Amino acid sequence: MHAARRVLEAALPEPPAFVDLDAGFELFQRTGVALPDETVQELKSRCSCALFGAVSSPSHKVAGYSSPIVALRKRMDLFANVRPVASPAGGSGRPIDMLIIRENTECLYVKSERIETDPVTGERTAWADRKISERASRRIARIAFDMAIQRGKLRAAADSSVPQLHPKPKVTVVHKSNVLSVTDGLFRESALAVYNDPLLGFKDAVVLEEQLVDSMVYRMFREPHAFDVAVAPNLYGDIISDGAAALVGSLGVVASANVGDSFVIGEPVHGSAPDIAGKGVANPVAAIRSAALMLEYLGDAHTAARIYAAVDRVLASQPNALTPDLGGSGTTQSVTEAVLRGL
Amino acid sequence: MHAARRVLEAALPEPPAFVDLDAGFELFQRTGVALPDETVQELKSRCSCALFGAVSSPSHKVAGYSSPIVALRKRMDLFANVRPVASPAGGSGRPIDMLIIRENTECLYVKSERIETDPVTGERTAWADRKISERASRRIARIAFDMAIQRGKLRAAADSSVPQLHPKPKVTVVHKSNVLSVTDGLFRESALAVYNDPLLGFKDAVVLEEQLVDSMVYRMFREPHAFDVAVAPNLYGDIISDGAAALVGSLGVVASANVGDSFVIGEPVHGSAPDIAGKGVANPVAAIRSAALMLEYLGDAHTAARIYAAVDRVLASQPNALTPDLGGSGTTQSVTEAVLRGL
Ligand SMILES: CC(C)[C@H](C(=O)O)[C@@H](O)C(=O)O
Ligand SMILES: CC(C)[C@H](C(=O)O)[C@@H](O)C(=O)O
After folding, report:
1. In which band, very low, low, confident or very high, does the pLDDT at A160 lie, cut at 50, 70 and 90?
2. Locate the Isopropylmalate dehydrogenase-like domain: which residues (chains A, B) (predicted)?
3. B178: Cβ below 6 Å to ligand 1?
């Protein structure tokens, strides 16, 4: 996060004001609260956006603990999780340029779970509710179609000598409605209704494709260049974005933004990587790109583009200077300095 | 399926008796029933095992239709779905040799779904139940540990000049208990309890590892050779096995077996591939290997091994003779003949 902050300070015309707010498992261990009310209140009252640092989460059940980012997404109604996954410019092989749009508030992430114990055998059975609403599904589909069109325009405006990966914007709707015909059926049906709505005009501008989530993971690895925008319910989106990250070298470069109607939280897709904590070699690229993505969704596409370009230059031209996850011998600090110089 | 049948006829010492039983979407379209009761009754009364051919399923909701393989797994209590994924012997790169054990009866596959309409807005919300029981989780974990040990023994008995991929058997438990602390928490806890049970003796013989499902997909693509046996709840198992298939060249080579206490159904992992239907170029390897896997779980490891070896020889030595999904110009029939010759 420190790297992202320095880059924002250097890149923005006016130095932004920062507030440090607490959340996470370490805080929970000290205080019993993972996401304090003050954090949410401060965000709502004093901030226009936020960056969320990678937190560690216990893999085992800890009574009372619950992931603060999942709670924040819901409490701030950040209904879209936007995850661009692109191979570095100038790399070898066919380029990858995907945008994953993950529904961010429902599915199994409503975290409505319960456990029952059989009075006779004493054996336990646990249940979770999966929620898919028409409203959230339409809303996320609409964002996906809008963004596909916007990406198409940017590509058309860019250097036309570069062969176009996606001649016409394409949206892949990911679901598993062959098994979950009601919930994923509703997700699918809502996306199709938005697509076919003549008032919205998506049908002529965008190619629509569907993919069952299992086949999606398969195809992503067989022909990743075939995807443009993919839209998915929450859990599928979580899984496919980690999969897509594997295609572009490292989770350490993949950014995300949690986007709502009036707030954005930038968040690197990676976790806290306890194996390298404190060694100073964590890749700052995901955090820096998440800061840029945050600016983009705040409307400052210009500064965002400058940051992206500086990062891309470092990734493309200084392989040895990158952090160990990308095969280099650089550090968090040296990569950050290189990005700052390139701004 | 025809290919698998021919191979079984040629490989088994006694020619087996076959019964053709109906199921699937085409049957549903003709008769309104996807899985006739007679099919289940015949299986239970007259058969010792079965092969399930790839069926097409509609991606949209068709009133009354429901996937016959999902229903069969439940009605025959085939609680384990076993999916070996290995790179061809003698291939380049570090070899992959994974066995995915997918829980086969619960999770979101209980297909308990409902839809509500808001009386004021008219908007719909759909719900699905996800079930994770201690009993099914313990049962599937136990199978995973048992199979890891068995694989370890086979490796030890095999040519020791080959460097060992997994010096000690390893089981990776896949879950998402950082979000689903109750359901995936119970899956995880049950697997750990089986592992730590001194009466079962797994702890000294097997290395246990945990992986969140999103990271699992990431790691599978970054270091697939690191996995030995992976065990997962139903839906995660579905997704990671398609992902693993992408690592070994084609879904057209990946077999599975649906295993219960007293019945086995072999089933290729791939679907019906409508794009190549009727062209005679569908890869028969997944179906042939599924037949061998079925024999293996019936106790005839010897015939199974002969079939596997014949398939491996064709895959390794005749690249041009393979089907188009593997880059060759062979046909279903020519590949089948090659396997038959190699038996
Ligand atoms: C940390 C975890 C709760 C989170 C999620 O599952 O959403 C993470 O995996 C992510 O992708 O942002
Ligand atoms: C066809 C479908 C219902 C099935 C599943 O999801 O289990 C398939 O994808 C599989 O992996 O066997």
Report:
1. low
2. 1-339
3. yes
